[in-house]
Amino acid sequence: MSAPYIDHPLQPGDRAPNIVLNAISREGTIALDDFRGRSPLLIGLFRGLLCPFCRRHVAAMAQLNPALREKGVNSLAVVNTPVERARLYFRYHPIPGLLAASDPERATHRAFGLPLLEITENETEWPYKVGMDVVTTMRVDRPGELPEPMNPDAAAGFLNTKDGYEITEADQQVRIPGHMQLVGHFLLDREGVVRWSFTEVEEEGQNMDRVLNPEELMSAASEVAH
């Protein structure tokens, strides 16, 4: 589907566009306009389920969902995985109560201004290009899951092996060689205006694969719920 494109993430005060996606957690479609005028919305935009960090971030959204719902805030997780593949995954890894949608074309990511990052050998122009020389210096720390802080590429390989995640043809279809989609969360008020965000774009890559701060999110959710 076509979507507007902007070259930077939507900021607080920006109005989110309407996007219509195939629902994963139920039949039919989900549109951002479904929530406009009705309730605030936390939208999490992720890479495909082949990304072990994104699988964990979706599960974390599901855990936060009940507390957000108490404040009247709905949640929607968007993954780049094709809808049938995603439905199969969530059949075995349920996310009770969390709405999820499929966006293999990355239309939502483009509309929210999340770049497709090019992986180069040694040229970095964040957030559009990053050199492997820089990636190897980054560290992801997940105590209890990783034996030690590791660079994102090594950590992803370790976790996929640990999870026994089998990458299928459907997963491969949405891979763009030499690139990685940057991701993030956006909290919209009842009118669909961004009030808070946390993305991988900020902090020159230091947010890569990091989870959001639940206390910060809940504080922002309390504000938009008023």
TrEMBL record:
Record flagged with keyword Iron: no
Superkingdom per UniProt: Bacteria
One Gene Ontology term of the molecular function aspect: antioxidant activity
InterPro entries from the UniProt entry: AhpC/TSA, Thioredoxin-like_sf, Thioredoxin_domain
SUPFAM superfamilies: Thioredoxin-like (SSF52833)
Signal peptide (UniProt feature, chain positions): none
Keyword Ribonucleoprotein: no
Keywords (A to Z) from UniProt: Plasmid
Protein name according to UniProt: AhpC/TSA family protein
Organism: Sinorhizobium mexicanum
